[in-house]
Amino acid sequence: MSASCYEEFNNSEDNYFQDISQPLLKSKSEQLDISQQINECNLMDLDQLASEYCKCNKSNIIKNILRQFHDFIQIKGDQVVIESIYDIQYLVKNIAQVRKEYHNFSKNKQFNQSFLLSVLKSKRFSYLFKYFLKYYIFDWINCGNIKNVRSHLICIYFMQKCFSNQQLLDKIVIYKKRN
After folding, report:
1. Do the beta carbons of residue 52 and residue 156 sit within 8 Å?
2. How far, in Å, CA of 50 to CA of 112, rounded?
3. C-alpha span between 134 and 88 (Å, rounded)
4. How many CB atoms lie within 10 A of CB 134?
5. Which of 51, 54, 72, 129 could join 77 in a cystine, given CB atoms 3.0 to 4.6 angstroms apart?
6. Confidence of residue 67 (pLDDT cuts 50, 70, 90)
7. Is the pTM here over 0.85, yes or no?
């Protein structure tokens, strides 16, 4: 290989690796931004969080979160974790039984605020939802293609606080269908 050919190859190789590494740098800055937003939401007091939650346009956000929860139980969730959480409730069930119960629970329901309330109040699935919100949802946010991360985080933290403060459930507005 001639010297000029070798230099040309090295330059093209450097440009190739620069092009590949560019999105990685961008994603790291996005992850830093997400970490900063997580910290901001974590520092909010209960009243401020409830106020921000009420201001959010929640319809798609709640649908996204509930769809991810659905996928967690039905497809992506770790079988051992799901079975273990059920065992905590003294309901020894295998993953197939848990998935079947969840399927029956969610059958013919839309992923909206009404379904969110059902999950939060459910004796069977609230434990799984709490675990999902605490551990799995942040992976989805970091890897997902979410445009409004802050609103998603506010809704997630609000849902997490609903487990410790049942009065927050009153802030979840259910819209009735008009006939």
Report:
1. no
2. 18
3. 17
4. 12
5. 72
6. very high
7. no
Other CB atoms within a 10 A radius of the CB of residue 11 amount to 10
**Residue with token string 């998935």:** 99
What does each C-alpha distance from 69 to 30, 49, 156 come to in angstroms?
24, 22, 12
DSSP collapsed to 3 states, the chain: CCHHHHHHHHHHHHHHHHHHHHHHHHHHHHHHHHHHHHHHHHHCCHHHHHHHHHHCCCHHHHHHHHHHHHHHHHHHCCHHHHHHHHHHCCCCCCHHHHHHHHHHHHCCCCCCHHHHHHHHHCCCCHHHHHHHHHHHHHHHHHHCCCCCHHHHHHHHHHHHHHHHCHHHHHHCCCCCCCC
Q: Is 77 left (phi over 0), alpha (psi -120 to 50) or beta?
A: beta
pLDDT at 6 over 50: no
For residue 172, name the pLDDT band (cuts at 50, 70, 90).
confident
